[in-house]
Inverse folding.
């Protein structure tokens, strides 16, 4: 009962706060001259991003004594999205959050928590100029407005442990992993040789976002860059979707991946020989794993420069709780200009969502060849679709995936067919 | 009656009201308001709206209830909780009562044993779950000991065994508290009853059945009700031990779905509807239990 009461109390507290503050908020987003002054921003609590955030804020504050920015890490919670959702309802969201997940945007818009960037005179031109109109379009909401600036991506690839590959008799420098058959053969060898406990260990848990790191990147690659839904319809109930489902189904059936939750990072802990992850993780593997990276596999294999993958991007939004929105917008542009994007790249290894990334920071990639592959891959990424009820859609997709692919209790073709219907009805609600 | 006396009674009533006022206020703020809010939210298309934002929150009647119930995971979660309670509640009562009876008779190392049963109760759930994961995971201690006899699929990914493991874990974790309740009851039973029974030739088992069990009836009612309420709100164990209600929904609980719908998916109306249904479920089960007990008592009375 205690948990139920806690939940109800939390909901009630949120509601009461909303009612109490209703009369005194700055509210709205339209019209008039936008004001300037001190603002508060949140950034991720990842160590490298904290360093970047502090450095960028210090740089701005030095030049703008009358518009001081206070930077803080996003308060601890089970996820950033939940903390931000609660902050919007409580009216204490900061002006900017440098860690928005595209999947959460539609919910925050529904809450009335986000300012459309179209409200700023140069809003649309800045977003489209920085990332390119095609990439930017993926981040546009269903009402045609931008509520998020596509900030950085973490194109996911297959990381592999070179030492384990060597121990299994596989080529550690040029691993053959481009087709499903290649992957399967490598996985067999890794397990039969005893080099690794698991070939790969995507979390087999039921959080709504877990398919972004198993099924979705491979589906994007197999389909040549299709998002999960397009024009209100599911795209995956086809040969490409089935090929990917059958691939993962085989991996689980042969116990090449654990069906059980692993407490920790199985790749960093050397329990699994491969992982699907983006470049943000490189810093956390330093000194632990002798890693290499290759693009995700496809059924028949594709040249590396044609493979698309999941972007795992993060965005920046301006929140309606912000009073000094002009400063917020100016700081957002400052923090995402060419220089500060360069600093972000060098401090975190994450890819700013800018057009022509490899050429803009050519000297960095020459000095850090291990990141070059990610920069090239960053040009061919797909994000989660920006739809209503996105989290519900992914949760339903995940539930079916676990039943069919992981636990083998439903044929994959039946699951894909059912999921296509569920997904379409979820986003239409 | 004199005016002074009447005034005295009135002032006593006033003092009494003042004395209960803080607790009454606490009850209203912490229990009544949230429950009313919960019911209200469950019939609205509710949004955690930003202050000042004009977000429509229309009355939708029972739509949220229908949406919640149309999710097969919810129906499954109530069955799961039923399975959990069938294991957890009787085990809690039997073990709690037996251990309390044994602890009361101990003459040596009393404090040690009483604290030993209480330690899991006061230990953080996450730490206890860590220990159970170490025991029951695929490469855990239990499977090592069992060797070839280990279940396949392993405990936590076996749809028949996962809830059993969770029920045992929760029973073990909560047991110390219930043992304490029973111990308080056992210590109140006069020794003379046991002595008389002993003179009449009753053995330990007979004494337990004929004296201890009936004397602890009220505490058993309390323990059953509390175990039922705690069990029906199962959240932490399936969230952390079986990867969010796995395998394939076998340990999904209504409280976990409240979190998924109400918090993660931004559908507070549906979350609140599940909360209300869960409350009704607990009241129904507790009511059935109370009815069954009354029936048993009245039959006993007839026999006597």
């Amino acid at each position: 009962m205690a948990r139920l009461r806690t939940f109800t109390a939390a909901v009630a507290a949120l509601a009461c706060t909303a009612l109490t503050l209703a009369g005194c908020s700055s509210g709205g987003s339209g019209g008039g001259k936008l004001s300037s002054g001190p603002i508060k921003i949140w950034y991720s609590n990842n160590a490298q991003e904290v360093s970047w955030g502090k450095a960028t804020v210090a740089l701005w504050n030095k030049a703008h004594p009358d518009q001081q920015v206070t930077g803080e890490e996003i308060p601890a919670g089970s996820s950033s999205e939940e903390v931000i959702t609660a902050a919007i309802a409580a009216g204490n969201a900061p002006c900017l959050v440098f860690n928005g997940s595209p999947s959460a945007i539609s919910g925050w818009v529904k809450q009335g928590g986000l300012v459309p960037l179209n409200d700023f005179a140069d809003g649309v031109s800045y977003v489209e100029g920085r990332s390119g109109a095609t990439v930017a379009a993926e981040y546009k909401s269903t009402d045609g407005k931008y509520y998020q600036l596509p900030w950085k991506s973490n194109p996911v690839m297959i990381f592999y442990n070179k030492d384990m590959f060597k121990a299994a008799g596989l080529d550690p420098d040029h691993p053959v992993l481009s087709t499903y058959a290649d992957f399967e053969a490598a996985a067999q060898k890794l397990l039969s040789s005893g080099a690794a406990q698991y070939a790969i260990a995507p979390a087999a848990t039921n959080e709504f976002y877990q398919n972004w790191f198993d099924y979705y990147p491979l589906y994007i690659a197999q389909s040549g860059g299709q998002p999960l839904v397009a024009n209100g319809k599911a795209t995956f109930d086809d040969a490409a979707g089935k090929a990917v489902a059958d691939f993962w189904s085989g991996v689980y059936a042969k116990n090449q991946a654990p069906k059980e939750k692993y407490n920790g990072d199985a790749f960093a802990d050397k329990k699994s020989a491969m992982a699907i992850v983006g470049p943000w993780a490189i810093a956390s593997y330093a000194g632990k794993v002798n890693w290499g990276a290759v693009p995700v596999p496809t059924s028949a294999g594709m040249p590396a420069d044609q493979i698309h993958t999941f972007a795992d991007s993060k965005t920046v939004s301006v929140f309606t709780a912000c009073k000094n929105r002009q400063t917020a917008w100016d700081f957002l542009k400052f923090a995402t200009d060419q220089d500060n994007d360069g600093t972000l790249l060098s401090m975190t290894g994450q890819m700013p969502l800018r057009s022509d990334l490899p050429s803009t920071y050519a000297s960095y990639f020459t000095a850090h060849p291990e990141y070059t592959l990610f920069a090239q891959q960053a040009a061919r990424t797909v994000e989660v679709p920006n739809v209503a009820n996105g989290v519900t859609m992914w949760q339903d997709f995940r539930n079916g995936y676990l039943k069919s692919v992981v636990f083998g209790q439903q044929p994959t073709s039946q699951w894909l067919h059912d999921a296509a219907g569920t997904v379409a009805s979820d986003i239409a609600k | 009656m004199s005016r002074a006396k009447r005034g005295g009674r009135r002032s006593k009533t006033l003092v009494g009201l003042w004395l209960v006022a803080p607790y009454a206020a606490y009850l209203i703020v912490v229990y009544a308001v949230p429950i009313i809010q919960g019911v209200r939210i469950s019939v609205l298309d509710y949004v955690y709206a930003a202050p000042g934002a004009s977000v429509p929150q229309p009355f939708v009647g029972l739509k949220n209830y229908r949406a919640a119930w149309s999710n097969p995971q919810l129906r499954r979660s109530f069955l799961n909780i039923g399975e959990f309670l069938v294991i957890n509640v009787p085990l809690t009562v039997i073990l709690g009562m037996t251990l309390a009876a044994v602890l009361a008779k101990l003459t040596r190392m009393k404090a040690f044993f009483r604290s030993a049963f209480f330690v899991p109760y006061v230990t953080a759930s996450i730490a206890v779950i860590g220990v159970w994961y170490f025991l029951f995971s695929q490469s855990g201690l239990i499977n090592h000991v069992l060797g070839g006899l280990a279940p396949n699929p392993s405990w936590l990914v076996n749809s028949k065994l996962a809830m059993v493991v969770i029920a045992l874990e929760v029973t073990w974790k909560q047991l110390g508290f219930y043992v304490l309740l029973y111990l308080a009851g056992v210590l109140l039973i006069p020794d003379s009853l046991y002595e008389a029974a002993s003179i009449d030739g009753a053995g330990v088992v007979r004494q337990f059945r004929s004296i201890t069990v009936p004397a602890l009836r009220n505490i058993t009612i309390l323990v059953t009700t509390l175990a039922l309420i705690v069990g029906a709100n199962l959240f932490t164990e399936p969230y952390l031990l079986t990867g969010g209600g796995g395998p394939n929904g076998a340990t999904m609980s209504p409280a976990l779905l409240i979190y998924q719908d109400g918090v993660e998916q931004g559908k507070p109306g549906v979350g609140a509807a599940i909360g209300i249904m869960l409350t009704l479920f607990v009241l129904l089960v507790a009511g059935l239990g109370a009815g069954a007990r009354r029936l048993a008592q009245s039959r006993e009375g007839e026999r006597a």
Notes: Chain A has two domains: 39-146+314-352, 157-311+386-428. Residues 89 and 189 of chain A are 52 Å apart (CA to CA). Chain A touches chain B through 61 residues (CB under 8 Å).
